[in-house]
Amino acid sequence: MDLGYTVAMWQLQIQSWFIGILAKKTDDEYRGYRLPKGSLVRKVVVIGNSWAVLHDEEIYPDPFSFEPERFIVNESTKSNAKSPDIAFGYGRRRCPGRHTATSSIFITIASILATYNIEKATDADGSVIEPRHEYVSGLVSMPLPFRCKTTPRSEAAVKLIREGLDGNILRN
């Protein structure tokens, strides 16, 4: 089974969030600025600005749009989008849990897509509510909550969902 689109969706999720603050472990100086031990320092001051790289329109055209296809490279797309793994940092300070994080994101996305149909929500009059692309910024950037409609794909999906919620899926 080809899960290329699912892989592209988790890459899109990694691109959209970013941990942007580090605490200094020792006193330091950077370009004439004193950085005392324990102070919170944004990565843009001390190390590479991953957010800027992950939102560079030359690499990721329209970076705020939902386009997992940008990570599917084939003859028709000729995409130059890079894998967003730099969200986990660089070099020796790179996140040691990045493989667990990306696997968890992938499994979550694949499980949701396998069991649910996801559609835009509607209001009381039946008009479609367009999701707004608004984000919380800070330690981790993430989308603000929005309404959507989820329906199980089938009776088999309902059974999987119930077993997962009950914890029975691992016992069967």
Automatic annotation (TrEMBL):
Heme binds at C95. The lineage of its organism: Eukaryota, Fungi, Dikarya, Basidiomycota, Agaricomycotina. It holds the Pfam family p450. The keyword Calcium does not apply. Belongs to the cytochrome P450 family. This is O-methylsterigmatocystin oxidoreductase. Gene3D superfamilies: Cytochrome P450. Pathway: Secondary metabolite biosynthesis. GO terms for molecular function: heme binding; iron ion binding; monooxygenase activity; oxidoreductase activity, acting on paired donors, with incorporation or reduction of molecular oxygen. Its cofactor is heme. PANTHER family: P450, PUTATIVE (EUROFUNG)-RELATED, P450, PUTATIVE (EUROFUNG)-RELATED-RELATED. It comes from the Eukaryota. Keywords: Heme, Iron, Metal-binding, Monooxygenase, Oxidoreductase.
